[in-house]
Design a protein that fits this description.
heterodimer, A: alpha/beta, 6-stranded mixed beta sheet, B: 23 helices, 74% helix, globular
Amino acid sequence: MTMKKTLLICAAALAFPLSVQAQDVLTLYTSQPNKDAQMTVDAFEAANPNIKVEWVRDGTTKLMTKLRAELSSGVVKPDVLLIADSVTMESMVSDGYLEAYLSPNRTKYEDSLYSDKGYYYGTKLITTGIVHHKKAPQSPTDWSDFIKPAYKNQVAMPSPLYSGAALIHLATLTDEKTLGWNYYEQLHTNQVKAQGGNGGVLKAVASGTKPYGVIVDFLAIREAAKGSPIEFVFPKTGVSMVTEPVAIMKGAKNKAAAKRFVDFLLSQEGQQLVLEQGYLPARGDIGVPAGFPKREEIRLMPFDAAKTLENNEANKARFSKIFEG
Amino acid sequence: MTPSLIKARFIDGPSMDSQLRWLSIGLFVLIATLSVVPSLRLLVEALSQVTLSASSPLAEVLRSERTWIALKNSFYTSGLGTLIAVVLGCGFGFVTTLTNIRGRAVWVFCFMLPMMIPPQVTALSWLQLFGPASPILNTFGIAPTLGSPQPMYSAEGIALLLGIQSAPLVYLALRTQLIALPQDLLEAAQLAKASPFRVWVDIIVPLCRSAIVAGAALAFVSSLGNFGIPAMLGIPAGYIVLPTLIYQQMAGFGNDMLSQVASLSMIIALLVLAGMLLQQWLQQRSRYALLGHTAKSISFRLQRWRLPLELLLAVILCFILVAPLFALIVSSLVPALGMPLTLDTLTFSAFHEMISRQGVTKRAFENSVFLAFVSAFVLMVVSLPLGYLLMRLPMRTRAVIASLIEVPYAIPGIVLAIAFILLFAKPLPFIEISLYGTLGIIFLAYLSCFLSVCLKPVLSAMSQLDPVLEEAAQLAGARPLKRLVDIILPLTAPAFFAGGLLVFLISINELTVSALLWSAGNETLGVLIFNLDESGDSVLASAIAVLVVMLVAGLMSLLSLCAPRLPKGVIPWHD
């Protein structure tokens, strides 16, 4: 009976739909929000009717865990990656997992937005700034406001120990001369509370649990447009940013389609789509979405992906020492 | 007639053995694939980069002070959480099963539901209820001032929520035992003029100890691997436990991340082994054989205590079910996060969007319901012979096998998922079929993860079974399978159903295992809710969560309709 049962289980497992292997399938791993990922895929398929995109969406951390586990068992599943930050991409480059490709569209971009050998290309600018509840008593304008007594125990921020984007934010701010590590020590003294990620900060601020927060731009601006009682501010000193880079895997099965995907994202059409989704496009000659100030008014703080990767462990240890005692 | 019977038994003999032998081989192969292989794969990963140098990932993990802090914190929160779960689960269990409380079915029904509400929702609703922005406290003018400390952001806050989440585990394990209590013992005690309190302390509690210990063990193991609650409440307080520490390693950019994660999981596995030994030792001291169900369930008359007790239950349910559920519903009916719910802002657009426009909703519901049903069913079917065989093994062997089964449930779901990716990312050898990227791999992972959930109540029920009945059947010539189906199954049916029900409830909105194993077309409800929430669409996520609670409540009501046809006691919320 048990043997039968085991057989039955096997049979049931076999009967599950196996992944379809169509002629030209491109596999995409992305950390874009569901809706945006669907929009991107739809637009690409419309422009390339002979390519079908199969995509997996998850937060960068989980997606990288999945990818690392797959790579460790010797399988390359995705053809292209479209994930949050360039530091993760740098680590993939240094482990030799990425394929270099010089896209003809790169000329329209600033040098700092892509790797010079063509391993990855930034597709949009996701900046980290300040959010506050509309009923909050203060209206913060710069990072240094958060260490004032009026903000004691009122501020939420994503923890660099759990979120890659927050770690990049930390690296950027500690490199800024006027802020530095001293700033983070003062944040701790002022009882700023770390949350798991940007979603947690959004909830804390929108629900009024913490009236102020550190958050990525599009989350707050989009939610405010829907009617949420919050407001996003671009701080005076500048914002840190991640670039949501796209890259081709070295073992990709469908490199031709992967290259077309990269070209598409960097094209005028692809960048227009980024704008429609409510993000700041990486290409400078495309406008800004509703709710954003003019491009010239947004100050981007300098940041070095390779150096951040190198300092990553030390930064985390130092942050953990300050905030976890 | 006698000689022919002897002859028949003599001929029958070897085939009896073969039935048992095949059963054992089949089941041990099953355990090996479901429980041992994934754990071993992780062990290999943990040891993979070990070199003689001091900088291997395993050594680094063991040397890091934070590992030991997290271990200590995990032990504290899970231990305290288990204690809370035992108090809540047993309190509800004793009151709703043993007394003449009114509306018993409703209480039990409601007590099952908190498991279905995502713990993050419960935590958030409490933070809002007792926070500076609380609508209720502000109405009375007693809301805490802005910036006052939140007591929920602490080890005890984590433990409290863990306790509430796992209380139904204790409750269901205990209940299967309570309804099997022999009436004659109680009648004897009552004839001897023993007070209800003495009957409870001297007869009922000792007889239920094994079940309580089993439930507590489940609660402990489930708290140990929980990520959602400590992530929500621990991170702001800078309080790390093992699952959040594991997540920190994953969020790093390093190449040896997998080995570090695997090493940390091995520490959890060791904790589980220690816990299992403790459980075995405790249960060994409480072995009483019982004979089946009583015809009539026990009922203490509460008299003047009945109303206060009912009120107390109502207050507890308000906190663990009504308030969070209310918060969930409110947040699904507003246009955007943080807007107040008024007649003007009330909108069903989130439900409309998810039900009629997003094809993924239907798929996720189908996938999750299918997975939950099939996993619950398969595990129930497996638990019967498995429990039977385990009970025939020597004590020590049983303890070892039982703890091996426990490990996949205890390590955080995300790590188990890593093990399954490592095992199944390549097509299966020989047959060249890839399970990866299908529902099949999630199904296998669920079987591996939840086997111990289903088996625990069954084992506890079987350990209290009087062998006399089975021996009688054996003497009458019944072969093992017949004895299993005709004698053991009816006597332990409530335990099987409790186990199956637990598996169903846990897997219907399971998140962490499927988070890494899902693929396009194979979404589960947990993944759908989480992805929406993480992308900032928490209104849509709340709408789905409300639908899940409604679905489960609906399915549970359907089950009560079938209750008259099922053996007595199998549906917990139906007498």
